[in-house]
Amino acid sequence: MLLMQGLVDGHTHACQQLLRGRVSDEYPMVWTRFLVPFESNLRPDDSYINGQLACLDMIKNGTTSFADSGGIHMERVADAVLESVMQATIAKFTIDMGNAITGAMKETAEEAIMHTRDLYKAYDGKGDGRISIWFAIRQVMTCSWVLIAMARDAAAAELNTGIHAHLCEHKDEVSFCLQNYHLRPAQFLKSMGVLDPNLLTAHNVMLSDEDIAMMARRDVKVIHCPRANLSNHGFPKTPQMLQAGLNVSLGCDGTAPSNLDLFDEMKALRYSMIAYWGLPFFNPMVMSLSHAS
Q1: What is the pTM of this model?
Q2: Fewer CB atoms inside 10 A, N or C side of the chain?
């Protein structure tokens, strides 16, 4: 038995629990081929059961708090969290564009923000403050600049809450942003007034050195999902991020690739960083145990 503080999963998808391990041997893009069809067809009770299973799995692995970047029927996930006595920061998907997005996941910008407002009014602060409701920006490929601006204004200016976003997850996202906005994703979010301390960004695999320096100056919060990143997207510049002073934390990214064990994420990140950034330069200390403190 180990007595310690509970772990915090910085980026997960509770609604994907019933997909446990389903995409572990699949080629990208697993999100459009598996996750979108699955989540688009979830009913409220499906989301509730997914939420219950996610909370149980996290508690078994030492996690007592998590940040969920959104899904369908997130009010039922919040119900599951309240029953579990966990803490959670919950967002609802906000997606208003993208040809691959269908069904209930795609709304107008106005509908997406309205539904998050409704979730905020019903659940923020519930359970003696254990539930916090944030806004979401799925990513620049599926959120119009109008939706991003509305989420920014509602979260920062009006409700004083945070924004949970996927950022620089894969090269297609960078290519999309360069083609459509002539800016890299982090630069585009800065131009929109979103790249600030209340922004929590997941994955962060394709950040340039300039992106890292800019995000460190603006105190953006960075979440790595090592096993999901390594299986689909590549090796992030974690040593450079830590050296720049970025706040880097870990998330499991849901159970579709594997499980909700943050200890597995710690091991995957450390040894992958040593293999990729350390051994080629005879520097096994590029990701030391002290970086976990």
Answers
A1: 0.94
A2: N
